Amino acid sequence: MPVEGGSSSGSASAARHPKQKRKAHSLSIRRTNSIEDRPPGFQRGDMLEGQDSKLPPSLRNNLLDLFGQIEREFENLYIENVELRREIDSLNERLTGDGQTIEGGDPTKGALKTKASHSTSQLSQKLKTTYKASTSKIVSSFKATAGSRALCQLLKEYVGHRDGIWDLSITRTQPVVLGTASADHSALLWSIETGKCLLRYAGHAGSVNSIKFHPTEQMALTASGDQTAHIWRYMVQLPAPQPPPDVSAPCDDDQDSSDREEGEVDGEGPCEVPTVRLATATLKSHQGVVIAADWLVGGRQVVTASWDRAANLYEVETSELVHALTGHDQELTHCCTHPTQRLVVTSSRDTTFRLWDFRDPSIHSVNVFQGHTDTVTSAVFTVGDNVVSGSDDRTVKVWDLKNMRSPIATIRTDSAVNRISVSANQRIIALPHDNRQVRLFDMSGVRLARLPRSNRMGHRRMVCCTAWNEENQSCNLFSCGFDRQAIGWNINIPALLQEK
Question: DSSP readout, 380-404?
Fold first, then answer.
């Protein structure tokens, strides 16, 4: 940072000037804080009247109160030392009258001085201990916990969107690619290994809020702020793989990344890629933003969630509305389908999430769950019989489908939780946070790790969503956020579980 004045002599004088002011200020405090010199009705804030201070009066009074307490401590020590010196003098007089002297002729070097200085050393030690305890709490917050020592290797960064990325997903068919949905009105498909953009979908007229892939075919389902959901087909060819970068870090790197400019990204955006502009089917029944959509098991029906407080069930082949799922009191935030059963869970800003059961064609039951105190940002099924819900109330709760009266585990965090995901094989919960963190927990609520976040890796703004890919005996976690990029991580699951 440049120094005002532009010369070394000017900076030297500027450096001396505050020291002189501090010295004068400390003398002023010593004079005015003295109990003997304080006039009746004197207020601590009066001592700085006439001085050029920009501190608010309440803050100045608070500081002066603290200085006064320190001064009183030393005054007490001074009085105690005076009394001890009087005792030393009286004892010395007695010893002199008896013909004895203290070794060295200096009473301040004898055993009585040790007693006098003991009180001072006690106060000094107390101050040191207090300071050390307060700073150790701060320092300990930056240290990696025992459960966070597993290695997380940066797989790839996927840069190319012109606005924040709301959602991402992994294809369920070959070739396996990554899909991202962005506020720039587009959805992109990426090569996971190379980070190259393979295809762009540009059929929406609004923000693309969600992307999900068909379980068996090369089809994608996207939800948009243009009040529609689109089903579209894609065809991609993977480029030749490249060797992975040798970048690894412990899973609790807390270095800040604020030195990078907002919106700045590493790497280059995608070059000209094939673009799909027409949807195979357009679902138009909503009267508000469609915030999320998902395929039901089998892929013959889809469910959408909207800000019009309803979730709709559609037939894929005909694009017809089958059921309007109403009952939420406020806007919906997410919807998710069970991987093997005809179950749907929807979450809402009304602090609830609802479980819709379509297993019996003649009965469409619904259950309401009120386990949170703020917006439920997402609720997802696991491969087993669990539902995991996340909320702006900074909690994540794990529920048993067989007994949903109360959660079987509650995870408390320091930031709002966005769209969570659970790995199918290891049942590890990945939590994306407003504070740019991504944390990993097991189903019992035990924290396993925190993904690196430094100047070289990690998100620089809010993390919106996470998604797992457990193909080919490896475990990759993907995250996306408002910094316009998606990031892939290779998670060392054995080391992670060993730390557990």
Answer: EE-SSSEEEEEETTSEEEEEETTB-
pTM of the entire structure? 0.68
User: Could you read off the pLDDT of 113-162 as tens digits, one per residue?
Assistant: 454 455 555 555 655 555 544 444 443 344 444 344 446 888 999 999 99
Quote the CA–CA distance of 408 and 69 in Å, as a whole number: 50
In whole angstroms, give the CA distance from residue 396 to residue 352: 13
Amino acid code (one letter) for 424: A
Distance CA(169)–CA(190), nearest Å, equals 11
pLDDT computed for residue 121 by the predictor: 57
Which three-class secondary structure state does DSSP give residue 133?
helix
Instruction: Give the model confidence (pLDDT) of 2-20 as tens digits.
Output: 444 444 444 444 444 444 4
Residue 73: how many CB atoms within 10 A of its CB? Answer: 13
Backbone angles phi, psi at 486, to 5 degrees: -110, 150
In terms of residues, how long is the chain?
500
For residue 154, give the H/E element and its range.
strand 151-159
Provide φ and ψ at 323, rounded to 5°: -145, 140
Please report how the helices 57-97 and 8-33 are oriented relative to each other, as an axis angle in degrees rounded to 10: 70
Pairing of strands 290-295, 311-315: unpaired
